[in-house]
TrEMBL record:
Name of the molecule in the record: Acetyltransferase
Species per Swiss-Prot/TrEMBL record: Shewanella morhuae
CDD domains reported for this sequence: LbH_AT_putative
Family per similarity comment: Belongs to the transferase hexapeptide repeat family.
Record InterPro entries: AcTrfase_PglD-like, PglD_N, Trans_hexapeptide_repeat, Trimer_LpxA-like_sf
Domain PglD N-terminal intervals: 10-84
Length: 214
């Protein structure tokens, strides 16, 4: 019989994003992964990992887990779920893929996940519940607020500031010292050379605002 202690991690959201987080949790030594999802009990398995309940079940069981991660892509929803779980006393540690490079001088908030190949350079500060996705780079002295998603392959130059719940799309580029407002969207492949307002969506190279749909 093995003497290895079981270290359990709960993941809320049985999604593709959740599968990536599950593997990162395993690589960080979490030997037991339980998913929770509101499609339970119809959804009982995601790949080989069990779905053990819904959001309400998880709220009752947070103390059973050494770590609780929310794997929901929608930024505001993810932050609301974290808020509820933390109120119940959940431990929501940051999770970092072993191949990511996170400076010893960078800070990561609770519930933030850093995917494979990402780089976070010195004196950058990443808020709570952020996603720094595959091969994204956040250079020196950036300030990334809570609930921001930096999509795969996005690159932020030095001293960029991004406010709450903003989504930086796949492969975008952000010039140094740019300020991006809250709940904004930077489109896939955009290059941002001017500040972006709260709630604004910008697309293209160079990035320009588009009007919200009626
Ligand atoms: C691991 C993962 O999978 S992480 C997820 C990574 N995914 C992403 O990063 C996707 C980011 N999302 C986008 O880029 C989206 O296209 C958005 C959010 C910017 C816009 O989406 P929607 O609101 O649905 O807008 P819609 O598709 O109707 O496009 C609106 C207009 O913007 C244009 N547009 C949309 N996206 C882009 C883009 N990336 N670059 C240039 N123009 C764009 C459209 O052509 C359209 O123009 P038109 O009005 O002249 O026809």
């Amino acid at each position: 019989m093995s003497n290895r202690a079981v270290v359990s991690c709960a993941i809320l959201g049985a999604s593709g994003h959740g599968k990536v987080i599950a593997e990162i949790a395993e690589l960080n030594g979490f030997s037991e992964i339980h998913f929770y999802d509101d499609r339970w009990p119809e959804l009982a398995l995601i790949e080989h990992w069990p779905v053990s309940g819904n959001s309400d079940t998880l709220i009752r069981r947070v103390h059973d887990y050494a770590n609780v991660v929310v794997a929901i892509g929608h930024n505001v929803t993810r932050m609301n779920k974290y808020r509820t779980l933390l109120e119940q006393g959940a431990s929501c540690l940051p999770l970092v893929h072993p191949s990511a490079v996170v400076s010893r001088y960078a800070k990561l908030g609770y519930g933030t996940v850093v995917m494979a190949g990402a780089v976070i350079n010195p004196f950058s500060c990443i808020g709570k519940g952020c996603i720094i996705n595959t091969a994204a780079t956040v250079d020196h002295e950036c300030v990334i607020a809570d609930g921001v998603h930096v999509s795969p392959g996005a690159h932020l130059a030095g001293a960029v500031e991004v406010a709450e719940a903003t989504w930086l799309g796949i492969g975008c580029h952000i010039k140094q010292r740019i300020k991006i407002g809250s709940n904004a969207v930077v489109a896939a492949g955009a290059t941002v050379i001017n500040d972006v307002l709260d709630n604004q969506t910008v697309v293209g190279v160079p990035a320009k605002p588009i009007c919200p749909k009626e």
